């Protein structure tokens, strides 16, 4: 799974209808489609050229590099997603294709271990000369993640060995020793990937290299300036003023050493990728200063700069954070990839801290912003996930240029689709966290997982219709009795959880947001957790002006929204009175199998249809209107129309 | 006055404390300051180089052109403002300075009449080769306006003759005849200026040339494309993608012939400048198709795309219109120059139509967006006039890059300060409109004006404390009785106007929004118009989502706003109950002499200070708070802080 290595988790398979459906979609639709895209076989999409770049770099084809400078990472993310699929279900044809890609990647590797098709094909003399802008280490990181995942899924070492040779090369090039480059990447990713590689191989140099990249970051004089000067001031990018990516250190979280940073800032994906690596390393090293930085920056992100959907990065400019309590709904960025990265960061915080709050945020991002990134048919994707859209305004107002009213088939910068695919394929790895004091159940997802703790092998079989229903049944699978603590997360959205063991009520012992059960377990023990899911209103912090006077709805982990298709245009006229009953109803059509929400709301229509402004306006006509809310993740599956998460409190 | 030529208006002097104070500010502060700026003598401001460019072009100094490609227009606008000041009050020192500038301008004129320092100094071979982007005709237009105004103010012909030689040159270069360029300007301005030059000189060729520029606009194949190809695809600008100004025809209102255009679109200043010229010509020519276009486009602008302040152009991108009912408050553009241009368009519509609604909009723009463009001390200016500011958010969110929390001293692109200065200096010319059927009083401004209608010379002396008080006294000045119709505008904000003639109530005969008085006037006749000014709430159109559920306040022509300095931070928490009394109070400090507004409002503060989101939020604590509103034009005169025009209706 992205960045997670849990030696105690031996095997996991998901059976829940919700997630096994999504995983089937990734297997049957997304991964095959992305394969076509990587090979430029999708007629209406921008060509990717990603596989072609490897072919050319491997000497198997003539041509030039084309695509984004980080195009290689799309191939790596595809391989990583394939690995997770293969881990769950053998698929000889898919594995053969992946093996061919891996042979291609290996053939593109240079004799010294270097591997990047852009620089190999276009600028071999410029390797490592522009870390601020050029993504070599970012691409390396994605390759390492793929190599680890493929090895763990198939036992095959080819890609892992390619990765080790590349990592050895990087280790030889970077560091504080004489003759080495004292640089670090513009886009973090290699840090968390090196730690995965370390855990897969036991090679301490990879952990040390990750530590070097994290500690070196933000030191002065700034490496980005040093290398910029060495390049004679040449910049790779040409937008926003040529060298803004070099100058704006905060964009890359390089304005200060990590342990001195106080606020989540800059590019949101860079931030969460860096923090995922930092939290992983803080735990491995027992590094108190890094841990404090992770706690502080997590808090600033999640308590001041996170959308109710779990989206982060409120502005299109630099795909970045803004400031505390500034979360515009209609011009939000809230990139799908940042949601994936938030989950990666949260998972590592769970491993380090064992606090349920991290799982609450992880679940929020998963079920809302990450899932919203993909259409229900798996064929189209959002890069940007706004909380309010008005298509007629978006067409003419360029403040919305980054926001799309419907999902797109593919992107020139195609980071999000494969990131969502690998996240869904690897979801099993986010369900449990095995810590010294307990085995934590962080997410409720039907399936079977096997663990080995203190030399005992045992399994847990979850059955649940989550996220639609809050009843979770967990059966203990083992050959003999064993002792361990099980910690079942009590989600923040659930006011009255109830727990039974073998049909007997168990009083809740709550620790750090988990129901704690420390006992001797016998084969066949059955836990039943009841998490009632009433539809709940959410209110926002007093300083969050974009949600002032407004409410959002949530049921279980799902945030809901209004769509024009159900409620008519001009959603800003709708209000939800404080006493309106919020009624779950069964969806149909594209929402078949889902729970929707209905309520008696109001449409407040000012009187007077023609004038733009009128004096002494009479009170708005408030007429009752039955409102219908759909899960936010499922919006925009019925064509173009208005959408809104926050609506006026009545 | 900008673009107005009213042969029946012989002389006007303003005495009202409000406007004579502003005109004194323009005379004593703004124009001298701008003179220093044009000469690069303001220490902390970006250098203008505008006068230096003329010196160099005149051969009196060595050096290169510097500044914006339309830098010449700053000198012209300064000269035009000076002309209006001189028309009111002789000032030999100022006139001497202006004469020196005019000599310099004349010396920079080329033998064939051409006059533009950018092309003369930097690219003499490229004259007229890039109308879409390069502002030569725009600068010509501003020069023509200055030449006409200076001639009318001083009787001196030097600049007027420079203008005529330049106009003759343009007439020789452009047109549909053989060997002529079939182009038209990227930035309209020359059209309205040529019509002023026509009215000042009687030269029919100038009117025909204006007609050519208006009629040619938007014809196919597009001139901007033709000249772009002739240039080999070279573009002057380098931002937003190189040639966007060529490609985006709607930006310049060149996507369609004017008479086919349906919506106000593109760059707001270009739009109103073009329409001012078109309305002027439609009236002169009695052109029904152009008149229809003016009516239609005025309606689309004012009834669907105008802020309550009279601001137009809702987005920073292209300083342009968005679409119907999309008027964001915090990221508004609402350029000060667009407010000036709206007044110019409105004035010509008044001349053509005699409908009070045009004066209502003109007054709204004048007292709100235009005046807000300048600080109370005349030393700093807004280019952009938002309706909501939250400085702490603006600092980190680049969606607000174009919005400043306080006025700036000068701008690299310094269009707005001199535009505001010339507007204020020429304000007298917006007060009356002399039409065949009546002499219209469009604005209430204390002062004396003399007219000649049907061979009779007479004057009107207005006394009023407008905009603070709605009592207007008008005395008829004449040597003998005369007959004419007087039409006194009944402002849309006034519900119960009352009119007296020589202390006797007169029943109102209302035509097109004016109180109509057709009679024989005797010297000394006294009209008293009472326009009660209760503070009024304003509500917005049902589709205007950015003002949904909100109210703004207006008293007389002034829109009010809340500032943090009076009301504390987090203005989004404030609400105004429907039954709250709105109480005018006397201002003090920077507001001395002004009427402020107070009301018992509410501050609604959600409970729970820490969490970003909370479930089942209890009702907000609503505590009463005395609210204090200040005139919008006077905001941001006390340092940085939040500001808000629309607040929640209680």
Short description:
Chains A, B: It holds the Pfam family Glyco_hydro127M. Chain A is of the alpha+beta class.
Question: Would you write up a description of this structure?
Answer:
In chain A, β3 (432-434) and β4 (439-441) form a beta hairpin. The two termini of chain A are 44 Å apart. Chain A is globular and about 75 Å long. In chain A, α3 runs antiparallel to α4 (92-108), α3 runs parallel beside α7 and α13 (268-285) runs parallel beside α15 (336-353). The first copy, chain A, has 19 helices and 23 strands. Chain A is 36% helix and 19% strand. In chain A, the strands form three sheets. Chain A has a seven-stranded antiparallel sheet with strand order 1-5-6-7-13-9-10, with no helix packed on it. Chain A has a six-stranded mixed β-barrel with strand order 15-16-21-19-17-23. In chain A, strands 3-4-8-12-11 form a five-stranded mixed sheet, with helices on one face. Chain A is an alpha+beta fold and 650 residues long. The interface between A and B is large, with 65 and 65 residues. Chains A, B: Residues 535-647 form the Non-reducing end beta-L-arabinofuranosidase-like GH127 C-terminal domain. Chains A, B: This is Glycoside hydrolase family 127 protein. Chains A, B: InterPro entries: 6-hairpin_glycosidase_sf, Beta-AFase-like, Beta-AFase-like_GH127_C, Beta-AFase-like_GH127_cat, Beta-AFase-like_GH127_middle.
How is this fold's topology laid out?
The structure is a homodimer of 650-residue chains.
Chain A: E1 9-14, H1 17-38, H2 50-57, H3 72-88, H4 92-108, H5 117-122, H6 131-134, H7 136-154, H8 158-173, H9 190-201, H10 204-216, H11 223-230, H12 244-247, H13 268-285, H14 288-304, H15 336-353, H16 356-372, E2 388-389, H17 391-394, H18 416-425, E3 432-434, E4 439-441, E5 447-453, E6 456-464, E7 471-477, E8 482-489, E9 498-501, E10 504-505, E11 510-511, E12 514-521, E13 526-530, E14 535-540, E15 550-555, E16 558-563, H19 564-567, E17 574-576, E18 583-586, E19 595-605, E20 613-615, E21 621-631, E22 643-644, E23 647-649
Helix pairs in contact in A: 1-3, 1-18, 2-4, 3-4, 3-7, 3-18, 7-8, 7-9, 9-10, 9-13, 10-13, 13-14, 13-15, 15-16
């Amino acid at each position: 799974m992205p960045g997670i290595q849990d030696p105690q988790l031996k095997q996991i398979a998901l059976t829940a209808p919700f997630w096994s459906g999504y995983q089937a979609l990734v297997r049957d639709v997304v991964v095959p489609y992305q394969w076509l895209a990587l090979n430029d076989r999708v007629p209406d999409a921008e060509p990717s050229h990603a596989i072609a770049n490897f072919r050319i770099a491997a000497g198997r084809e003539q041509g030039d590099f084309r695509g984004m400078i980080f195009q290689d990472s799309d191939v790596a993310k595809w391989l990583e997603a394939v690995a997770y699929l293969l881990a769950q279900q053998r698929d000889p044809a898919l594995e053969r294709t992946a093996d061919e890609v891996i042979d291609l990647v290996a053939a593109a590797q240079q004799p010294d271990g270097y591997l990047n098709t852009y620089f190999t094909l276009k600028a071999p003399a410029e390797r490592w000369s522009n870390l601020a802008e050029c993504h070599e280490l970012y691409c390396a990181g994605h390759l390492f993640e793929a190599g680890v995942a493929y090895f763990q899924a198939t036992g095959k070492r080819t890609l892992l060995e390619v990765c080790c040779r590349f990592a050895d090369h990087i280790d030889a090039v970077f560091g504080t020793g004489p003759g080495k480059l004292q640089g670090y990447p513009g886009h973090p990713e290699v840090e968390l990937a090196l730690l995965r590689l370390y855990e897969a191989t036991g090679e301490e140099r990879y952990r040390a290299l990750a530590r070097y990249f994290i500690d070196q970051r933000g030191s002065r004089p700034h490496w980005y300036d040093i290398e910029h000067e060495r390049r004679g001031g040449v910049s790779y990018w040409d937008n926003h003023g040529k060298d803004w990516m070099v100058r704006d250190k905060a964009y890359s979280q390089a304005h200060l050493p990590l342990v001195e940073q106080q606020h989540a800032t800059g590019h949101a994906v860079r931030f969460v990728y860096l923090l995922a690596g930092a939290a992983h390393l803080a735990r491995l090293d027992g590094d108190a200063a890094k841990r404090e930085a992770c706690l502080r920056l997590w808090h600033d992100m999640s308590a001041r700069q996170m959308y109710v959907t779990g989206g982060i990065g409120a502005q299109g400019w630099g795909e970045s954070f803004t400031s505390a309590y500034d979360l515009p709904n209609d011009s939000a960025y809230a990139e799908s990839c940042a949601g994936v990265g938030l989950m990666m960061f949260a998972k590592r915080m769970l491993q380090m801290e064992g606090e349920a709050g991290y799982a609450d945020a992880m679940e929020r991002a998963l079920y809302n912003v990450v899932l919203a990134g993909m259409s229900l048919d798996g064929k189209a994707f959002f890069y940007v996930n706004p909380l309010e859209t008005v298509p007629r305004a978006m067409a003419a107002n360029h403040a919305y240029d980054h926001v799309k009213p419907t999902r797109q088939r593919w992107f020139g910068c195609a980071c999000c689709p494969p990131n969502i695919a690998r996240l869904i394929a690897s979801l099993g790895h986010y369900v449990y966290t095995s810590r010294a004091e307990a085995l934590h159940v962080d997410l409720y997802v039907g399936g079977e997982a096997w663990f080995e703790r203190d030399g005992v092998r045992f399994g847990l079989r979850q059955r649940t219709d989550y996220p639609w229903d809050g009843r979770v049944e967990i059966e203990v699978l083992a050959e003999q009795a064993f002792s361990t603590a099980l910690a079942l997360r009590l989600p923040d959205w659930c006011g009255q959880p109830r727990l039974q063991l073998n049909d007997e009520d168990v009083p809740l012992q709550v620790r750090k947001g988990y129901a704690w059960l420390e006992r001797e377990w016998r084969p066949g023990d059955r836990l039943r957790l009841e998490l009632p899911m009433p539809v709940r209103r959410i209110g926002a912090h007093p300083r969050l002006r974009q949600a002032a006077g407004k409410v959002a709805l949530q049921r279980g982990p799902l945030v809901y929204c209004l769509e024009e298709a159900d409620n008519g245009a001009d959603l800003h006229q709708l209000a939800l009175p404080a006493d309106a009953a919020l009624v779950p109803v069964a969806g149909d059509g594209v929402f078949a199998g889902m729970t929707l929400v209905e309520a008696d709301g109001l449409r407040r229509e000012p009187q007077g249809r023609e004038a733009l402004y009128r004096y002494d306006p009479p009170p708005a006509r408030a007429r009752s209107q039955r409102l219908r809310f759909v899960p936010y993740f499922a919006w925009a599956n019925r064509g173009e129309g208005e959408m809104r998460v926050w609506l006026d409190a009545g």
